[in-house]
Amino acid sequence: MSDLLLLAVLDGLAYAALVFMVAVGLTLIFGVLRLLNVAHGSFYAIGAYTATSLILGLGAAGWSPWLAYPALVLSAVLVGALLGGLLERVLLRRVYAKEEVLTLLVTFAVFMILEDVQRLVWGVQPLFVDTPLRLLGTTQVGEVYYTAYQLMLLPATAVVVLIALRWYLRSTLQGRLIVAVAHDREAAMAMGINAQRVYLTTFVIGATLAALGGAMASPTTSLTPGIGTEMIVLSFAVVATAGLGQVEGAAVTAVLLGLGRSFAVYLYPEMQVLMPYLIMVVVLLFRPQGLFGVAETRKV
Amino acid sequence: MEPRVLVPLVLLAAVAAVPLALPASTLLLTLALAKGLAVLGIVVLLRAGQVSFGHALYFAAGAYVVAFLARAQQGGSAVLLVFAGVMAALLVGLVVGLFVVRYRYIFFGMLNLAFSMVLYSILEKFFFITGGSDGLRVPRPTILGIAMDRFVYENTLFYVTLVLAVLAAWLVHRYFRSPLGEALRALKSNETRLEYVGLSARGVLLVAYVISAGLAGLGGVLLALVQGHVTPELSYWVRSGEFVFIAILGGAASVAGPFVGAIVYELVRAYASAFAADVWQMILGGFLLVIILFASRGLVGLYDDLGKRVAPNRAVTGRRRPT
Fold first, then answer.
1. Measured by CB atoms within 10 angstroms of the end CB, which terminus of chain A is less buried, N or C?
2. What is the pLDDT of residues B158-186, one digit of tens each?
């Protein structure tokens, strides 16, 4: 029984690491651009597919398999910078002034389009590459064997992302510009901050994080159409539960939801799909603005 | 007669003539109108500036209540089934509504999504009652005591759906013009001021929520009767997203929008999935983008603008803009 619990904890943490990377990008974009980005799920999926193709390509070219790890990061940056940058520059910039519902639906439309793009590029057959998983082997924890990739690399990446993001937002000029615009866009612009550029930077960073989540997830699961959908709904739940725009809160909440989900998998599988939502409902019941959210002051 | 009034009437007559002229499309159109009813529910909430990503909950609740009751009595009376299904949706809407009207924007949307996923899981996991992912077959009920063969049954249901759709649109139109309905717009623009006037924002929203749940339930009920089969997929969040999509496509500013949007959506989907199966999502997504970027008041808004361009004098005679 204790082995089962241990497995559940390990699974939960590995999953939470992935969810965190996607959700923190989402919450960052929301905090600055006031935009709920449904296309975030596409970044996740395309990040995963790109990483898989890249690793397959490396393998076919006969390069060292250890290059798979840089390939994971590289594909995330590629997807984030190219696709994310393009989307912000060409499309989103035109719709910021519109109602919140409409901007959300713009990203929903992009999501639909990108779903078909994935299908056209990578087909519907499941893709699977576990090179990064195999190279690191397995580690014994108590009585159970667990892959070192999921045990150490995934959580470590998530922690690095969290620390780097905190440092970036608090201690660099670029990061502080982002915080300023998130806090009060008009005042920031009056100070001479180029809000449009900040928007672009933020969106690219957010998209890269989502793609990184996808790339890191790719060795642990086989890729089929629809993986982005599941992730986007879950990370929306994380963002709402944590409170909008909360970076550290997203980390805590991701762990909470990840553990809840994996305990459900082992103890009561019927509840697996439901668990994250139940946690969200309970949290919002007692804290309507989310676990770490700040209640907005009412303006007359 | 003014073209403003004439064109919608002609369109309505054209839709009503479909079973005679294009019998093969009757089913498609009935399903589109049923979906339009659910979309009308979304439009009611959009008026208050809120988006629900979980109205499939009420759609499925209505449909499954019909399925259970029809199976229990090997058909039964369609009128009673409709009544029971809508009552169930209203009841669930009231219970869930009491909770969700305390929230706004993403919290409102996500909580609705959560509740619809709860129903989805129940429908899928308790297969010994709900038939699991295979769903349930709905035996054909009698309409006003008359047992009908398939052809007559489908045609009758089409006209019933059409009448109900027109009736619902008219009633919602009246509701929007009533003080309680006007309060929805106030809720959207400034909730605090609404409360200063002495109205409870939650109360105003709750009424709208229950109405929208009832409309979605009615849509689900009709779908179950027409399709003769219900599946858990009816409560999946993708379907809720579809409702919101159609609302924007048709135009959320008028009660005709949901039905125009639903018919266009179903037609595009039917043809796109027949002729371009691989890219039909892409086509729909592109369609939505074009609408939002260039005609954010939807197809009906597009029509209004067209009317104004053709007859600029008539549009500015001091009449209120149709809502």
1. N
2. 888 999 999 999 999 999 899 888 888 88
Distance from CA of B89 to the nearest CA of A (A): 21
User: Residue A256 burial (CB < 10 Å; 0-12/13-18/19+)?
Assistant: buried
Summarize pLDDT for B234-249 with one digit per residue, the tens: 888 778 888 988 888 8
| Tokens matching residue B28 | 């498609």
What's the pLDDT score for residue A210? 93
> Does a structural domain hold residue A231?
no
Give the closest of A99, A110, A116 to B279, CB-based. Answer: A116
Cα distances from A257 to residues A37, A194, A238, A252, in angstroms, run 20, 37, 7, 9
Does residue A261 belong to any structural domain of this protein? no
**pLDDT score recorded for residue B214:** 94
- Which of A234, A237, A171, A235 lies closest to A206, judged by CA? A235
Residues A173-229: tens digit of each pLDDT: 888 998 888 888 888 888 888 888 888 999 999 999 999 999 888 888 888 887 888
- Is the CB of residue A17 less than 8 Å away from at least one CB of chain B? no
The domain of A174 spans 2-224
Determine the distance from the C-alpha atom of residue A174 to the mean position of all C-alpha atoms in its chain, rounded to a whole number: 21
**Is residue B12 one of the residues assigned to a domain?**
no
Cα B217 to Cα B83: distance, rounded to the nearest angstrom: 10
Say how many domains are in chain B: 1
pLDDT of residue B231: 87
pLDDT in tens, B79-106: 888 899 999 999 999 999 998 888 887 7
Q: Tell me the average pLDDT of chain B.
A: 83
Residue B302 within a domain: no
What is the interface pTM, i.e. ipTM, of the complex?
A: 0.79
| Cα angle for residues A37, A41, A45 (degrees, 5° grid) | 150
Domain presence at residue A274: no
Q: Tell me, yes or no, whether A238 lies in a domain.
A: no
Q: Within 10 Å of residue B197's Cβ, how many Cβ atoms?
A: 8
Task: Give CA separation, B264 vs B38, B234, B288, in Å.
Answer: 15, 20, 12
B216 CB near a chain A CB, below 8 Å? Answer: no
- Tokens coding B61: 């609740």
Residues of A in contact with B190 (CB under 8 A): 300
Cα–Cα distance, A291 to A159 (Å, whole number): 20
Residue B317 has pLDDT above 70, yes or no: no
Q: Answer whether residue B297 is part of any domain.
A: no
Residue B291 lies in a domain: no
Is any Cβ of chain B less than 8 angstroms from the Cβ of A274?
A: yes
* Residue in A150, A133, A144 with CA at minimum distance from that of residue A7: A144
